[in-house]
Amino acid sequence: xxxxxxxxxxxxxAALSEAELLARIFPRLEMAGTHGSATLLGPGDDxxxxxxxxGRTVISIDTQVQDQDFRLQWPNGxxxxxxxxxxxxxxxxxxxxxxxxxxxxxxxxxxxxPPDTPVSWVADLADGLTAGIxxxxxxxxxxxxxxxxxxxxxxxxxxxxxxxxxxxxxxRSGARAGDVVALAGTVGRAAAGLALLEAEAAVQSLAPAQxxxxxxxxxxxxxxxxxxxxxxxxATAMLDISDGLMRDGGRLAAASGVVLDxxxxxxxxxxxxxxxxxxxxxxxxxxxxLGGGEDHGLLAxxxxxxxxxxxxxxxxxxxxxxxxxxxxxxxxxxxxxTGGWDHFAD
Length: 346
Prior knowledge:
The chain is of the alpha+beta class. It is built from 10 helices and 13 strands.
């Protein structure tokens, strides 16, 4: 049998040395020839050097693991690209800094790759990282370095550094009775997209409105300008909605010792936006609104009477605890199931 010639499509990481693979990745991380101003020394040495002019560094870390956080091929036939995984790795980490009211300055990336991983898939991942940073608006951020390793499945770990530019971080613990609960970005769309990926309806048959929901799952768009704006407007508490409105809202409520009471009239339009998927799958769109994560919108609380910053919509109010009330989330005063994603229970 004649030997199949190696091309960019058939070449795997096993055919390259670590130095050769890095040589293909580094140029894709140069952010059009420059790094962010905070990256004093980028990839190439044992460690990067990052400036911290504020004297403090905001830091977070996230991991995506094959067959836990994404599938290479979904039941509906969609094949996850390296670009998808790179974009999502950037988005979810940038969103964590955004949720503190900060601005991301640098990412460092650790890749674990099976030997049969196509080199082109890894190159696409690097492209997705840089495209996510640019297109989501993280103009002060760049990839400063990382690590490569060999393993049984693809794993992508990203640590992100950020700056508060001299201001105070917005924590989960500052909400007070009488505050307004507000949302920036979307909720439920990534969950609807996930349901479409897991469904039997072939990806080629999806209508544009359904495909748009799949894109939110594969390439989320957190509202990165909203975090610093919320901080400047006096937000009392804030977090990134990564595991669902009810679950993450419950975390904010517990940290602040309050109840978040959501307005069903404000939630209804969020559910209506999911009709293209819910009608096809015969599902309840409100379940995705309340329990779906990975849109990476922001949930924040603001003092009553404060003008909400651009991008935020009021969806409820903060209530004090009663004598027999525990911190949590209610809808029109009624308790509902928490829902949401749990990495070890789901």
